[in-house]
Amino acid sequence: MMTTAALAGAASILAGVSALQVPALLGSPELRVGAARAVRGLVAASRGWVGRHARAPAKGVLGRIVPAGGRRGVLSRRREQGVIRGRCLDELPEMMDVIVLGLSAGLSFDASLCIYCERYETMLAERMRTAMRSWQLGFRSRREALDETAASMGVGSFTTFVNTVSEALAFGAPLAAALMEQADAVRERRRSDLEEQIEKTPVKMVVPIGTLILPAMLLSITGPLAAVFSSGA
Question: Which of 32, 34, 57, 192 is most buried, most CB within 10 Å of its CB?
Fold first, then answer.
């Protein structure tokens, strides 16, 4: 809906255009004043329209999904889960490499994991340190502790790692080769995720361009015209 300033400016410019029918009024101050008012009114109207229509779709979608009081909590949890997933995918291949080196040197899985937890200060090392302490003290079994850690993180690659380790230790299967293959697969998946994020960047830039850059360009174009008409008046 057009604002009052826009309607007044449009009425002024129409009056000025109708005055063009009279040759004596060409270049009159009334025409310049009307054009300046129209430019200012249209700029104000476009600014308000962009602000309302840029916020309305997002609010409407979120309002249908979750109540107003829970929007921030949902967005915060999603953001936190995304950070945990990214850090896990970054740190998981390195942890598996350390475990593979320990297994290749003749160490057990627990000893290899202990080396990683002692030498690294990462999110994954802290969580694995807590899980390993729980099964070493007898609070729960290794499988239960690893499953609980995987459930708290909610990352598919880490869940696959837990299943591979538990099955290999239960059936006596070789673990080093399986972990090497899985580390390569996790690195490839992380590379694919980064490439996907890079491809989505131009799409995410559409809203800032439409709401910030285009109005600024409109002001930079119409501003000098308004100044010229105002000074001429």
Answer: 34
